[in-house]
Design a protein that fits this description.
heterodimer, A: 407 residues, alpha/beta, Aspartate Aminotransferase, domain 2, four-stranded mixed β-sheet, 42% helix
Chain lengths: 407, 79
């Protein structure tokens, strides 16, 4: 028994994943060539698992803005937003996000993880109640752990189940914060936001929507699912990240409630950390403007997403419940998932491998980008065809084995 | 409902969640002795909520080690 004993099972999973050569966990990108290309394991591959939805990481204007800020303001702020870490550019970015959402106040965090940790754990205090969707991201679960509130979960995307939980609370429901996501990160499905809002309003609860995967992806201005459904003015809080469609690092919270400003001096995840570097903030500002204005990026993204989703579904692979820039294929076992991941890599396509305990499913998680060309999508589809054929062949062998087994 | 009755029902919910069959008694430590992984614990809680029509606070889970602990907290939450 030692401090390390409890990690033995996790280490065993890691070792198993590394058995066939390159491990999918923390695979080194030797050289990054473009938003959609990198050198992995000695070969150039198409990146189809990066969350780089709009291809913003290599945008010329974003890079130049970052360069300029780096030269003018240095490599880091070396301080908290509460002390010496608030530059004019941090404040400008906050105003621009508030304007984008048409809301009075925005707060920028150093990462998206901290945006959820700070906002959720602080809003829901000792006398409050937090109800989260069962498929919530780890940052929401961690916020729930950190919060002093009573925490309940409701069945994923099930407004009726949420209604039941809020109903059991009676008047206490008014002290409740409900948390959902715009697009869920594993299967790419969307929250039934209209139905969820009907329920939260009925019981007087507040609603927070994490638009991490839907920012830049949905809505005319790219604000996310709430904008797409015309519900922006009904949601109480929206959090998001810069690390996907914006192509940088950081997070934010916006709200129609001007009282959001009061949270600034109470959120530990905001106070006890250094603010984002000036280059990061400068690139994020340009990227957010482009995300709003360059709507053709969204059109290209969705054309790629719909095409890939349909092609994989047509092959008989088990895809998520609706088309999305996250195209996940559900697999039977860890071994199948690992083999398929290597097949894709051998055929020049990098996707994310997801196995328990990271999630409760075995998944090949692909995310497409506006920067993928139609030929890239062809190549991704061709690689998945090999995976589908291998699975089919294995199934036939399995059936034959069963037929031959002694009865 | 008697706590012993709840314990019996909980064991029926837990057994199908185990990777390898193991005998479960009211005093069995669910994590230490039978290694119920955290994702399975979450699935168990969903089933418990549906079975007893209660909302089970996740914060209460840290005090639960055995079937008996879980049964006792379920009983307190029942209307």
């Amino acid at each position: 028994m030692s401090l390390f004993s409890k990690f033995e099972a996790l280490a065993a999973v890691g070792a198993e994943l590394a058995q066939h050569g390159t491990s999918p966990v923390g695979v080194p990108m030797r050289r990054v060539l473009s938003p959609t290309r990198a050198e992995v394991d000695g070969r150039e591959v198409i990146l189809a698992g990066t969350n780089n939805y709009l291809g913003m990481t290599m945008d010329r204007e974003c890079i130049e803005a970052g360069h300029k800020a780096l030269e003018m303001e240095g490599t880091g702020t070396t301080g908290s937003r509460m002390a010496n870490g608030t530059y004019d550019s941090h404040l400008a970015l906050e105003r621009e996000i508030a304007d984008l959402y048409g809301m009075p106040h925005a707060i920028v965090f150093t990462t998206g993880y901290q945006a959820n940790l700070g906002t959720i754990a602080t809003l829901a205090g000792p006398d409050d109640i937090l109800i989260i969707d069962a498929d919530s991201h780890a940052s929401i679960y961690d916020a729930a752990k950190l919060s002093a509130a009573r925490v309940f979960r409701f069945r994923h995307n099930d407004a009726e189940n949420l209604d039941k939980r809020l109903g059991r609370l009676g008047d206490e429901a008014q002290q409740c914060l409900v948390v959902v996501e715009g697009i869920y990160s594993m299967l790419g499905d969307q929250a039934p936001l209209g139905e969820i809002l009907d329920v939260t309003k009925k019981h007087g609860a507040a609603l927070l929507v994490d638009e991490a995967h839907s920012l830049g992806v949905m809505g005319h201005r790219g604000c996310g699912l709430a904008e797409e459904l015309g519900l922006l003015d009904q949601v109480d809080f929206i959090t998001g990240t810069f690390s996907k469609s914006v192509g940088t690092v950081g997070g934010f919270c916006v709200s129609p409630h001007p009282e959001l400003a009061w949270l600034r001096n109470a959120m530990r995840a905001y106070i006890f950390t250094a603010s984002a570097s000036p280059a990061n903030i400068a690139s994020s500002r340009v990227a957010l403007r482009k995300l709003r204005d360059e709507t053709e990026r969204r059109d290209r993204l969705w054309a790629n997403a719909r095409r890939l989703y349909k092609a994989l579904g047509d092959m008989g692979l088990r895809v998520g419940p609706q088309p999305s820039p996250i195209v996940a294929v559900m697999m039977e076992s860890r071994e199948d998932t690992l083999n398929a991941w290597h097949t894709l890599l051998d055929n020049g396509v990098y996707v994310n491998l997801v196995v328990p305990p990271a999630a409760n499913l075995n998944l090949l998680r692909c995310s497409v980008s506006a920067a993928h060309t139609p030929e890239d999508i062809d190549q991704i589809i061709a690689a998945y065809e090999i995976v589908a054929a291998n699975l089919e062949a294995a199934r036939e062998v399995g059936t034959a084995d069963q037929a031959c087994a002694p009865r | 409902m008697e706590q012993a009755e709840i314990e019996k029902q909980l064991i029926e919910l837990i057994v199908p969640l185990l990777d390898e069959p193991a005998p479960i008694a009211p005093d069995t430590d669910l994590v230490q002795e039978v290694g119920l992984p955290s994702l399975k614990v979450m699935e168990l809680i969903v089933q418990v909520e549906d079975t007893y029509d209660i909302s089970y606070p996740l914060n209460q889970l840290q005090d639960v080690r055995t079937v008996k602990d879980l049964a006792s907290s379920v009983q307190q939450l029942m209307p």
